[in-house]
User: What shape does this take?
Amino acid sequence: MNITQGQPAAAKKPLLVVTSQVVRGGISGRGLVFSLERLGHSVWFLPTILLPWHPGQGKGTRITPSPADFSSIVADLAASPKLGEIGGVLTGYLGHPDQAAAIAELVKAVKRHTPDAPYVCDPVMGDRTDDGDGGLYVPQATAEAIRDTLVPLADIVTPNCFELSWLTGREVKSELQALSAARTLGSDRVLVTSAPALRRNAIANLLAGPRGAVVAEHAMVADAPHGTGDLIAGLFLSRHLDGLSDEDALVRAAGSAFELVARSVKKGADELLFAEEQQSLGRPMALVSSRRVLETTSRA
Assistant: This one.
């Protein structure tokens, strides 16, 4: 336990996570809940859909609550007298486009209790393929609901390059294009995961924040398991709530994700090994470089 002037460190606030749930593997809700609890947060977890495993690992049954049932449980949570304990909200994959409106009401309810509780929207909707092309892997109606209903509410948005391009209608093939597009979203902070890197065989994470832009860059890991975007979003939220600067929070989040990926791949795993390699979540030793980015484009 950390002690300051003879007093225990303040407990971290619980977080609300709204995203998909898998039975096997560490993507999305499973990985996020474990990671955030490992960092000291209690987690309220609302699944948007239940899957046996990541869709990329094979066909499986999808169980999605009806819009009416989902809205009912959201209403229960929004009316809870304990909602005021929530210190931040993170949303990800949606199972149905109608979930966006219900989630928006829940975010607003949290904000009524705690106006400074940050809302992180991870707009999980699509990605680029190895040949550079990309596409949506959710129905277009779901992607539009995220864009039109959730992104405008968010304090922090964490798209990958394809998602940023789709959300803004802009080409995102260079660092400056990514930064320019990020500034058009209107959020306090936009964290672009897997952004264009300056070094070869490297991965960059670009953060456009209120005090400028910063990049955390590290070596690329071949055949990386799924789930790094979810993970970085959650880790950045936790470090942000710890009071770290944008640069320090980004470097810590990227370092943990990189180290966890590298250790998992080294062991031949097709999933992130959260339990076995959980030390990477708290105190990563991986080498991650950071640099400031000079903005030469308008923020308008």
